[in-house]
Amino acid sequence: MTKPVITVIGSINMDMVTEAERAPDQGETLMGTAFQMIPGGKGANQAVAAARLGARVSMIGAVGDDPFADVLTENLKREGVATAGVKRVSGVSSGVASIVLSEQDNRILVVPGANGRVDRALVDEEAERILASDLVIMQLEIPLDTVIYAAKLCKDNNIPVLLNPAPAHVLPDELLETCTWLTPNEMERKAMGDLPQAVLQKLIVTEGKAGACFFRNGMEKKVAGHTVDVVDTTGAGDTFNGALAVELAKGRTAEEAIRFANAAAALSVTKLGAQTGMPTEAQVTRFLST
Ligand code: RIB
């Protein structure tokens, strides 16, 4: 089978991962246990997930003029993601995410930096690449205006769009109509409010280790997830989206694609860091067969 061609228009961050026994309370200073800088960003994570799973992936995004810019771009290249669509913006930092990881949960604060400069002009510059895709993935860590603009370009040219509406946001009707798939988690789904039947058909709602659900003819259908030993859930949703996109681009049904994506997401949480534990296609296939 030829490799599906996927373009990700989205964020590229450096994740500052601090580990602690618990998150500090308001006004409290707490001693942490470990610190690492790990490439992340929902866009870059989803690009890496799709590349590891065998897609031909291009990234469209932006980095700043700080030392992180090269590290983040080189990381994508090493993962086999084409970076010609990643522009370098001067006078601004690359995106960073401050992540506090404890046994109970993870908390993420994102400063978009250069991600905020992913604009309509960049979409126009990269239109040829976008329109040569089997599927385009976006998230909401770049300006909403750009997401709406790119989704319309895709819709007008019959290119399917998978929008992972993260972080949570109320979405304009125009965007709900132009996207092919919408993949919120439960919290992001709540932020989307009531949706008409035509939009419900596009929804795939992720529910952590419980799996994910989708809707057909007004009925909710669940695809069960997996219980594994969790080290870090950061990037589990991104792995799910990258995997889902690859399978949908191959022409799999929603149910088949979700089953594969659930397994990929389960494998990803067994290692520290968003991208570190993202599996290959062979690893997912093996996991599903055991
Ligand atoms: O989804 C996880 C990602 O969210 C992290 O890599 C961080 O960069 C934030 O964008």
UniProtKB/TrEMBL annotation:
Modes of activity regulation: Activated by a monovalent cation that binds near, but not in, the active site. The most likely occupant of the site in vivo is potassium. Ion binding induces a conformational change that may alter substrate affinity.
UniProt keyword terms in alphabetical order: ATP-binding, Carbohydrate metabolism, Cytoplasm, Kinase, Magnesium, Metal-binding, Nucleotide-binding, Potassium, Transferase
Pfam families per the UniProt record, alphabetical: PfkB (PF00294)
Binding site for substrate: N13, M14, D15, G41, K42, G43, A44, N45, E141, D238
Binding site for ATP: N185, T206, E207, G208, K209, A210, G211, G237, D238, N262
Active-site residues, Swiss-Prot/TrEMBL: D238 (proton acceptor)
Cofactors, names only: Mg(2+)
Protein's cellular compartments: Cytoplasm
Pathway(s) of this molecule: Carbohydrate metabolism; D-ribose degradation; D-ribose 5-phosphate from beta-D-ribopyranose: step 2/2
HAMAP family in the record: Ribokinase
PANTHER family cross-referenced by the UniProt entry: RIBOKINASE, SUGAR KINASE
Sequence similarity: Belongs to the carbohydrate kinase pfkB family. Belongs to the carbohydrate kinase PfkB family. Ribokinase subfamily.
NCBIfam families noted in UniProt: D_ribokin_bact (TIGR02152)
Listed name of the protein: Ribokinase
